[in-house]
Design a protein that fits this description.
The protein has 159 residues and is an alpha/beta fold. 47% of the residues lie in helices and 17% in strands. It has a five-stranded mixed beta sheet with strand order 2-1-3-4-5, sandwiched between helices. Strand 1, helix 1 (16-22) and strand 2 form a beta-alpha-beta unit.
Length: 159
């Protein structure tokens, strides 16, 4: 099995082309929409690395929804209670992106969202393998509102 065959690239809504541009040497079969079942199956088939390329909405959805998550990230990244309050009241995830960006905190908050998403991917992989530790290295790329440009990332390389 080649390294490419041990890599799964999942992408969020409207992010397929961005994912293909970021990883042009991987075959088309490595790419697919975000799906927990696909990750579980790939782990059983010997997956070594998962890369998720998505906007904030898709990452928040993967982690179980934005309620409390984005406010928690805002507080954990020392953005202060005022910004955290605005984040908590934001009507949509994309509004939080704008709040973080306007406050100059998109970088650290975006990386933290990616870190938490990578942790979620690795926990899911560990569960699928029946192990306490993940057999899969996860990398997560945060895209801008258009789904075209990388604005944050977090992850580790496959062993």
């Amino acid at each position: 099995m080649t390294a490419a065959e041990k890599t799964l690239v999942m992408y969020g809504d409207g992010a397929r082309e961005a994912a293909r541009r970021m990883l042009p040497n991987l075959p088309d079969g490595c790419f697919g929409p975000i799906a927990a079942d696909r990750l579980r199956e790939a782990v059983k088939d010997g997956l070594a690395q998962v890369v998720l390329v998505a906007r904030m909405e898709d990452q928040a959805a993967f982690l179980g929804g934005a309620a409390g998550l984005l406010e928690s990230i805002t507080l954990d990244m020392d953005c202060g209670p005022a910004l955290a309050g605005r984040v908590a009241q934001a009507p949509a995830v994309q509004d939080v992106y704008g709040l973080w960006d306007a406050a100059g905190r998109l970088g650290p908050c975006g990386r933290e969202l990616c870190r938490r998403t990578a942790g979620g991917l690795e926990r899911l992989a560990a569960e699928a393998s029946g192990s306490a530790a993940s057999p899969v290295a996860a990398q997560v790329v945060l895209l801008d509102a258009t789904g075209e440009r990388m604005v944050g990332m977090y992850g580790r390389m496959a062993r």
